[in-house]
Amino acid sequence: MPAELSTLFTPVSIGDMDVPNRINMAPLTRCRAPGHLPNELMAEYYAQRASAGLLITECTMITEGTSAFGNDPGIYSPEQIDGWKKVTDAVHAAGGRIFMQIWHAGRAAHPLLNDGKKCVAPSAIAIDDETHTPQGKKPYTVPRALTQSEITDIVEDFRAAAANAVAAGFDGVEVHGANGYLIDQFLRESANQRTDEYGGSLENRSRFLREVLDAVTAEIGSERTGLRLSPLNSFNGMKESDPVSWIRYLGEMLNKYHLAYLHVMRADFFGQQQADVIPVVREAYHGHLMVNMGYSAQEAADLIAASGADSVAFGTAFLANPDLPYRIESGADLNQANPETFYSAGAEGYTDYPALSK
Predict the structure, then answer these.
(1) Which of 46, 76, 140, 181 is catalytic?
(2) In angstroms, rounded to a whole number, what is the distance separating the alpha carbons of residues 300 and 2?
(3) CATH assignment at residue 89
């Protein structure tokens, strides 16, 4: 192993777990769950990647009727719990550790994917874009603004999803607060124009997140709870006038939760919003900081060596390289990912990427 990469292979604690390396697998939407049911193919996929410090699953629906992709898995039924048990059993048998990313799509769900059910959001503001549906690409629809009682119900859905994830054998959950989905919609001024206690100031806009974290950590423990945020990402119509102050405020606010980790995306998919947010959140947040988006192995190792983060999540590289830690450690070439199979069905581009012989 090149000496300059050694920090990636030092053990670290994530919550109450000791993990053998700092190379995590980021959550990656793969659309391989027909009927929203986890299955044997998914179990194989995750088990192949069990050498990660921590595996984080694709976004998983906390309640029915909130699909944004069509074949996204859920964690709200006994059948889904049983299906996920196949995944966690396979990962643990391979020596891995796995968190489930729990998720509500909010206004990013589409009625054509949810039997005509209208999507919901903090405010009645549609995403100004199109999405894939069974009838081809269609514009996003105008969501219905949630009532306060409905917000309370969704907080309970997050709590129940965390309990179901643990019942399915997961080591913990990552609350999805990023990428323009429901929690992020509450947090960002571009999507939240409420005038009640859930809107206006950032303190009010973060109320829903706090209520979700209160419920989830009370249910399964803070040491089993992570959170993902994307201060810069404009995906799904997100924008914040001062993302640096935004992430500083949230980083400081989150210290009281003693989470397993805070997972921060450092960039914008579309390059529209730019700032150096990682040093800001590192100073503000005192727990385990996981970072993500476009890191090379060398950049990740250098950042950890400089105490700029505690671990790094890799996305596309892990998608195409089931044995990514070994490839990095041995200096081997990486498989190149095929974007045409990212969201297709079946094993092609999913479980057929080759691993190296050790």
Answers:
(1) 181
(2) 14
(3) 3.20.20.70
